[in-house]
Write a structure and sequence with these properties.
alpha+beta
């Protein structure tokens, strides 16, 4: 289990002029090795950091672009940790000096998506909220989110304010991590203890999961996934149904789902952020006194 404290503290990086794209490309490649998950062997990556903006794309690749992003309500160090798991393989999110700006290196389509996520979070309604990233050691982020949401529902019914989303848990796409957003300090401290206990006590059993895939693709996907997962979990193609049969833990299955349904997971993450933004906006409007 690993906590990432999304505090306003910032480690300044050298300024990266847009015109020095070869240098920026090398920096993006080095950063992406830490931040971005690797694609399944044999599948085409959305792009490579070696493609300079404006250079012709190689077959099967897309050009990367460089996008400067100003922040108004959240520190750059925090926003970087949230956006980094969402970049395409080979892309990067780079923090700029001063704590109020980022540089994104990614495909045009994914840059647009990252900007939409940034706009949802970098808003006045989110400004008072506390945010952290939680990386489970044993449990699945999806299962933890479901269990913690139920725990917080019981927490609210036990006497806490029911008109405010005290703590919410949103699984991050492309990684087994949770984005945690809290608006109440006591609820936050309780939720953090529960999370650590749930994760520490997780003894995930292996069981069978069925994942339907496109007709005729099961055998190919099973071979690629078994190669990338080094034999654990066990993945086979069912010749009758054409689905993938996965024998492993819930965490294993969650990771495989994120590999196979990346675009859907990205859209679900944005929808969950939008729903939370609407809740916070509604609460803020209730707190504004009306004038005759």
């Amino acid at each position: 289990m690993k906590w990432f404290n999304l505090s306003p503290s910032v480690q300044a990086l050298p300024i990266l002029p847009i015109l020095l794209l070869p240098l920026l490309s090398r920096a993006a490649t080095a950063t992406s090795q830490e931040n971005a998950p690797q694609p399944v062997p044999g599948t085409a990556a959305p792009g490579t950091a070696g493609n300079q903006a404006g250079a012709p794309a190689k077959p099967g690749q897309a050009n990367f672009i460089v996008q400067a992003v100003l922040l108004y309500h959240r520190p750059a160090a925090e926003m970087k940790k949230i956006l980094a798991p969402l970049v395409s393989p080979g892309g990067a999110v780079l923090e700029q000096p001063g704590g109020k700006a980022l540089t994104i290196v990614d495909t045009p389509a994914n840059v647009e998506y990252l900007l939409e996520v940034k706009e949802l979070i970098d808003a006045p309604s989110f400004a008072p909220a506390r945010m952290e990233i939680f990386a489970p050691a044993a449990a699945s982020a999806e299962e933890l989110a479901s269990g913690m949401t139920e725990a917080m529902r019981n927490y609210i019914f036990s006497g806490a304010r029911s008109d405010v989303p005290l703590v919410e848990f949103i699984p991050l796409p492309r990684s087994n991590q949770l984005l945690i957003v809290g608006t109440d300090e006591n609820a936050w401290n309780d939720a953090r203890q529960w999370l650590e206990r749930f994760d520490a006590s997780a003894r995930p059993p292996r069981r069978i999961f069925i994942y339907p895939v496109e007709t005729g693709k099961a055998a190919e996907l099973a071979a690629k996934l078994n190669q990338s997962k080094a034999g654990s979990p066990r993945i086979v193609a069912d010749s009758v149904s054409g689905a993938l049969v996965i024998y492993g833990t819930a965490k294993d299955y969650d990771e495989i789902k994120k590999i196979l349904s990346g675009s859907r997971q990205l859209e679900e993450f944005k929808q969950q952020l939008s729903a939370l933004r609407r809740k916070l906006d509604s609460t803020a409007n209730k707190d504004v006194p009306s004038h005759p």
